[in-house]
Specification:
This protein is an alpha+beta fold. It has two domains: about 5-200, Beta-Lactamase (2-Layer Sandwich), CATH 3.30.450.40; about 210-275, Arc Repressor Mutant, subunit A, CATH 1.10.10.10. It has helices at about 5-15, 20-30, 45-55, 60-70, 95-105, 115-120, 125-130, 180-200, 210-215, 225-235, 240-245, 250-265, 270-275, and strands at about 80-85, 90-95, 135-140, 150-160, 165-175. The protein has a five-stranded antiparallel beta sheet with strand order 2-1-5-4-3, sandwiched between helices. Strand 4 (about 150-160) and strand 5 (about 165-175) form a beta hairpin. The longest helix is centred in the last third of the chain and has 24 residues, at about 180-200. The radius of gyration is 21 Å and the shape is globular. It starts with a helix and ends with a helix.
Length: about 280
């Protein structure tokens, strides 16, 4: 039987961050021009942009909300439970009324808010995105001063190709047992992940990534053009492609124009039809 301290050490090995990782994330926060004194997240989607994002993530969101609404309450303390997309934009938020009101009023955290490092600095969601693993951040290790009374936990949800499709995160008082909170949060993420992968496997594309890349190899693309054409073929938008490849959205647009010109097409739809002709 593990002692309490042993369990805590094992927990921190799995989801804790080293001082070097914290400092690296703080440096990235500073590079994004975020001041620790910022009193709310920087970015929040509204209107049609938010509607498109919700529609794009409808599959995983439906699974998450169905499970949350049908399951017994797992957190008997003030908290925020959020489901974000793979880039940290909040798709669902729930919790006790006081925490919800406080987060909306003080930090502007609600559906459409971004918890990425460029919007909210170092927190468990941005850490999980940057480090590609579960993350736990306590108190003063948060970048924003207004988060330093909190504990944040985040567990990614992966698809069958080990790409993140969502983030399940908990915001609570730093006085709460992180070990117990993590166990409940990991359970939620596991249920969402299992159901998402099962549902997704029933709608598998007829073609593997390798087969799609083979279709693109018949055209005289540069390596970068072929890489962008691949994601364009999968119907990713220019912003998401830029984030995945670490280049600006404008640079992606320039490459897309070159790709369209080489295939003598003028839209994504005609590009997809051209590449998939005869299929």
């Amino acid at each position: 039987m593990f002692s309490g301290k042993t369990k805590d050490r094992e927990f921190l090995k799995v989801v804790g961050l080293s001082p070097k990782e914290i400092e690296w994330l703080h440096d990235k926060s500073r590079q994004q021009g975020i001041a620790p004194s910022l009193t709310s997240v920087r970015f929040r989607l509204h209107g049609q942009m938010l509607d498109r994002l919700m529609a794009k993530n409808r599959s995983v969101l439906d699974i998450a909300e169905e499970w949350i609404s049908s399951s017994p309450q797992r957190f008997f303390f003030p908290h925020l439970l959020t489901i974000t997309d793979a880039y940290g934009v909040v798709l669902h938020i729930s919790g006790d009324s006081e925490s919800l009101e406080q987060s909306e009023r003080m930090l502007k955290i609600g559906v459409g808010s971004s918890l990425s490092i460029s919007s909210a600095g170092t927190n468990a969601v941005s850490a999980a995105i940057e480090l590609r693993r579960s993350a736990f951040i306590l108190g003063n290790d948060h970048y924003l001063d207004v988060m330093k009374d909190w504990m944040t936990l985040c567990v990614p949800v992966w698809n069958e190709d080990l790409r993140p499709v969502a983030m399940v995160a908990l915001f609570a008082s730093r006085r709460i047992s992180a070990l117990l909170a993590y166990a409940a949060l990991a359970s939620i993420a596991s249920v969402i992940e299992t159901n998402f992968q099962r549902k997704n496997s029933n709608h598998k594309s007829w073609f593997s990534d390798a087969e799609l890349m083979e279709l693109l190899n018949q055209y005289e693309f540069s390596p970068r053009e072929r890489e962008i054409a691949f994601y364009w073929l999968l119907d990713y938008d220019t912003r998401r492609i830029g984030q995945m490849l670490g280049i600006s959205e404008n640079t992606v647009r320039v490459y897309v124009s070159k790709i369209h010109a080489k295939l003598n097409v003028n839209s994504k739809a005609s590009f997809i039809l051209r590449v998939l002709k005869g299929i």
